[in-house]
UniProtKB/TrEMBL annotation, chain A:
PANTHER family hit by this protein: GERANYLGERANYL TRANSFERASE TYPE BETA SUBUNIT (PTHR11774), GERANYLGERANYL TRANSFERASE TYPE-2 SUBUNIT BETA (PTHR11774:SF11)
Domain Prenyltransferase alpha-alpha toroid: from-to ranges: 58-354
Entry annotated with the keyword Cytoplasm: no
Cofactor(s) for this UniProt protein: Zn(2+)
Keywords: Metal-binding, Prenyltransferase, Repeat, Transferase, Zinc
Described function: Catalyzes the transfer of a geranylgeranyl moiety from geranylgeranyl diphosphate to both cysteines of proteins with the C-terminal sequence -XXCC, -XCXC and -CCXX.
EC number(s) recorded for this UniProt protein: 2.5.1.60
Domain of life of the native organism: Eukaryota
Family: Belongs to the protein prenyltransferase subunit beta family.
Chemical reaction(s) catalysed: geranylgeranyl diphosphate + L-cysteinyl-[protein] = S-geranylgeranyl-L-cysteinyl-[protein] + diphosphate
Entry-linked CDD domains: GGTase-II
Name listed for the protein in its UniProt record: Geranylgeranyl transferase type-2 subunit beta
UniProtKB/TrEMBL annotation, chain B:
Entry protein name: Protein farnesyltransferase/geranylgeranyltransferase type-1 subunit alpha
Keyword Transferase appears in the UniProt entry: yes
Keyword Transferase (UniProt): yes
CC cofactor: Mg(2+)
GO molecular function, one term: protein farnesyltransferase activity
Matching Pfam families: PPTA (PF01239)
SUPFAM superfamilies: Protein prenylyltransferase
Lineage of the organism: Eukaryota, Fungi, Fungi incertae sedis, Mucoromycota, Glomeromycotina
Organism encoding this protein: Gigaspora margarita
InterPro entries: Prenyl_trans_a
Its EC number(s): 2.5.1.58, 2.5.1.59
Keywords: Magnesium, Prenyltransferase, Repeat, Transferase
Ranges that cross the membrane: none
GO cellular component: CAAX-protein geranylgeranyltransferase complex; protein farnesyltransferase complex
Family: Belongs to the protein prenyltransferase subunit alpha family.
Length: 376, 300
């Protein structure tokens, strides 16, 4: 069979609260990503893990990511053709945080990224795939890690990204087909910021659109009126940070909404009444970090949760303990741990989701971290 | 007609070119590989034909997130002037297996925009939400339909149905807010006060669920009311022995407001409530409640 994808079964949970039981809570598996989505084959592990890992097995995870570089016939598909570029970004960033950036050959990586660029400056998810803002952003992220921006036509990239903005609303479309989402606002703003070319877009209008997506609970959604969701919140808060407009966010209210994502098992969910997922260790924590309130999360419990989602046989991290691993959750588990100050990992920048030293090398300062009076 | 039944003899499939030492190779299913080979050949000459259309269906089956294929499909549908209502049916069949696929939802939007006909969309989204009442794509698409075609009138009763099924459905609460406040017809003050009462009734059914609390506070913020209107509710719950961090947190908000107006007694009550939350009733968020305590303590 071809690239297998098995959608996550809806988990049937008896959830008793206030003497009323709800029938089930749906897992929030495919919604998340600011960076696209990947196929994954998911099923509960057939053997129960009796040991709870209490440390991060870096060597195992490095080997896991390296092993994705070889042809495989088994069910562990970690990426599909249309977002191979995303997969490279996730893997490379994870390796860099684990101090193993050279585990992927730099020349090959750069050559591959270059091959995804189109004449109009945009990048596709793979060779021969249409240009799209998301992949254009990934391309720039990868090239910054590899310090190889000179390998591509930067001016064309700027032109392409700028062309995605609707000058009337300030919103960004993913591509010529017109899908609008605050994910794309973030991708555009982050991408241009990393190229030092924010001048190419109407920043004021872009900010206005993002603020239209602010909700009554202090959170942000994908479009005006859409439900607050941690991944969209990361996108909006990250974008606002880059354009120096964090003061428009109610940091106390949003900070509380974000820390309320933490469940009794220590894991984080993406919106109320949904299941925990390791990748929210990134979306929620990065937003909190930008707002200067990451300590509102119970650190020990979350670290414990992430570590338990490791697979000690194959390496890699899954969305929750017992599930199949994938490179997406491996990265975001690691970035979560990095934000919590876990030893052995490089510091990650909460706005760009790049190792901090890369952001510093690009010359972008940390002006954007909100201060709230130094209270801890 | 399935894609195999077309005559492909004139097409030379173009194989996947991953380069000499490809980064991250994928083992493909031979059927998928064949279809992709034909696609690359057809795309190169920009062929818009029935067989090309069927081919896109085949590829989507294997890889519904292949966005380039969806684009190609759209181009073919429009240039061949295909029946777009049939396409809506096609999407409806696909959504069952791929309810959370971005490309599929946007594809539907593109088709409906072209048709300028939204008559099927309410029941379409309702069907999907029956399967998964929190499907983010379904909700945001539904909002797009309502805004674009001005379908505000029945939305509150739709939300009501969903809240009856699951009072804790945060998406439904969000939609309620949307239906009232994003509506071009602005709500009256009287209506908002009714909504606050509605929220209070629902809070009593599930006091530990955050959604109605957020909703009610959101409505209050848009009305002439103050958060004090929730004070009785919070105290009653506590007296009944129902410990809800949201109720206690709401009291902290009320006390903080009054402390800022000079009430020393309420400042102290607020501090005590924060301690209660930090040490007993919401310990996982201890640091947050300690912050709230600090804020209260600092009020002159």
């Amino acid at each position: 069979m071809g690239p297998k994808r098995v959608s996550l079964d809806s988990r049937a949970l008896e959830f008793k609260e206030d003497n009323i039981s709800t029938n089930y809570i749906q897992p929030d598996d495919q919604l998340l990503s600011c960076f696209g989505w990947i196929f994954r084959c998911l099923f509960m592990a057939s053997t129960e893990k009796t040991e709870r890992p209490s440390e991060l097995f870096i060597d195992l995870h490095v080997k896991y990511i390296q092993s994705l570089d070889t042809k495989k016939d088994d069910l562990e598909y970690w990426l599909t053709e249309h977002l191979r570029l995303s997969g490279v970004y996730w893997g490379l960033t994870a390796l860099d945080l684990m101090n193993n950036v050279d585990a992927l050959n730099k020349e090959e990586v750069v050559k591959y990224v270059v091959s995804c660029q189109h004449d109009n400056g945009g990048f596709g998810g793979h060779i021969g795939h249409d240009p799209h803002l998301l992949y254009t952003h990934y391309a720039v992220l990868i090239l910054q890690i590899e310090d190889s921006l000179d390998a591509v036509n930067v001016e064309k990239i700027v032109e392409y990204v700028a062309s995605r903005q609707d000058r009337q609303t300030g919103a960004f479309t993913g591509d010529e087909w017109g899908e609008i989402d605050t994910r794309f606002s973030y991708s555009a703003i982050s991408c241009l910021s990393l190229l030092k070319r924010l001048d190419a877009i109407d920043v004021k209008k872009a900010t206005e659109f993002i603020m239209l997506c602010k909700n009554f609970d202090g959170g942000f959604g994908s479009t005006p009126g859409a439900e607050s969701h941690a991944a969209q919140i990361f996108c909006c808060v990250g974008a606002l940070a880059i354009v120096n407009s964090l003061h428009l966010v109610d940091a106390d209210l949003l900070g509380w909404w974000l820390c309320e994502r933490q469940l009794k098992n220590g894991g984080l969910n993406g919106r109320p009444e949904k299941l925990e997922d390791v990748c929210y260790s990134w979306w929620v924590l990065s937003a909190l970090s930008i707002l200067g309130r990451v300590h509102w999360i119970n650190k020990e419990k979350l670290i414990d949760f992430i570590l338990t989602a490791q697979d000690l046989e194959t390496g890699g991290i899954a969305d929750r303990p017992g599930d199949m691993v994938d490179v997406f959750h491996t990265l975001f588990g690691l970035t979560g741990l990095s934000l919590l100050g876990y030893h052995g990992l490089k510091l990650v920048d909460p706005v760009y989701c790049l190792p901090k030293y890369v952001v510093q090398r690009v010359g972008l300062a940390e002006r954007y971290h909100a201060k709230y009076g130094g209270f801890t | 007609m399935s894609f195999e039944n077309y005559d492909w003899s004139d097409v030379v499939p173009i194989e996947q070119d991953d380069g000499p030492d490809p980064l991250a190779q994928i083992a493909y299913d031979p059927e998928y590989s064949k279809a992709m080979g034909y696609f690359r050949a057809l795309a190169q000459k920009n062929e818009h034909s029935e067989r090309a259309l069927t081919l896109t269906e085949k590829i989507i089956e294997h890889n519904p997130a292949h966005y380039t294929i969806w684009h190609y499909r759209q181009q073919i549908l429009f240039s061949l002037n295909k029946d777009l209502y049939e396409e809506l049916d096609f999407i409806r069949n696909q959504v069952e297996q791929n309810p959370k696929n971005y490309q599929l939802w946007h594809h539907r939007q593109v088709i409906v925009e072209k048709l300028k006909d939204c008559s099927l969309e309410s029941s379409f989204t309702e069907e999907v939400l029956n399967d998964d009442s929190k499907n983010y794509h379904a909700w945001t698409y539904r909002q797009w339909v309502i805004r674009t075609f001005n379908l505000w009138d029945n939305e509150l009763s739709f939300v009501e149905k969903l809240l009856e099924k699951d009072i804790r459905n945060n998406s439904a609460w969000n939609q309620r807010y949307f239906a009232i406040f994003y509506n071009p017809t602005k709500p009256s003050e009287e209506f908002l006060e009714q909504e606050v009462q509605y929220g209070i009734t629902k809070i009593k059914l599930a006091p530990n669920n955050i959604s109605p609390w957020n909703y009610v506070k959101g409505v209050i913020a848009k009305s002439k009311l103050k958060i004090d209107v929730l004070e009785e509710l919070c105290k009653t719950l506590y007296q009944q022995g129902i410990i809800s961090p949201h109720a206690l947190g709401c009291l902290v908000d009320i006390y903080e407001d009054r402390a800022k107006c000079g009430s020393i007694n309420e400042k102290e009550l607020g501090i005590q409530t924060c301690i209660l939350l930090a040490e007993q009733h919401d310990t996982i968020r201890q640091k947050y409640w300690n912050y709230r305590k600090h804020v209260l303590t600092s009020i002159a």
